[in-house]
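Consider this pair:
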Amino acid sequence: METSRRNPFLDIIKAFCILFVIITHDNISDGFRLRTLFPFWINMAVPMFMIVSGYVYASSFERNSISEISQAYTLSFLMPKFIRYTVPFVMAFAVIVLAEVLFTIFGILDRSFKSLIVIFFQGGNGPGSYYYPIMLQFLLFYPVVYFVIRKYAFKGLFFCFVLNAAFEFFQRVWGCNGEFYRMLLFRYTFVIAFGSYLWQCKKEKIALRWKIGAFIVGVAFIIAFCYFKLQPKIIIYWTSTCFLACLYLLPIADFLICRVHCSFKPAELVGKASFNIFLTQMVYFVYGVGFVRKIIPNHILQLR
């Protein structure tokens, strides 16, 4: 397969990731999550989304002959992507406003107009509501990551790892609260850079020792935090999917993205609609799941 053509398996990966997002937002006990190893697959959905995004946007930069960073900030390049994320979000937000108004009328909620404005800038209301603001930041931040990797390759990837670590350190020093932290793209700097590296450095294979080392460190970190309850002093938010935990994911992502090429149209369609599905599940888990649980007690049927 030519490297200039999009690998349809990327959409299949995204289809599985959005399924994992829906599963993780369901009411599942912590004990069951640990027994079924959620930290190693279900929890890795958003980091994998970020790796795929880094990879896909790198291919887009190459396809559009973006050779200078200024070209990545032109309206002609950014606006279609901004619209792609904004139109579905505005539609989801319209549903949120309608639900909030109805619940307020019936006395279920007590919301003000100001609270709706806050909800809008927070990316919605519900699990995963940070994702829209994150993707807008991605559009602005990604060109920097792309050109760092383009110029320095593996050294640039290591620099992004250090940058990610520095972000975690300074957010802790400054006492960043969890609600603000979840809205910041910088916690995904390293995995985004890794996706970009996979595309730009296709001929420069990552040494096996680095893959094994990353895998071992990531697994050890996940086990220590999730199963032995060892809490790092610096990384206190979303610890199970932080950049250290995601080291485990790197060789897996490398294999799936760069080595697997297959097609399955139904899954590809789901993957292409993953952002829209992400927004839908966000609304569902706030305004619809309570009603569904009353009439359908089975978890699997509820998710369907």
The two ends are 35 Å apart (CA to CA).
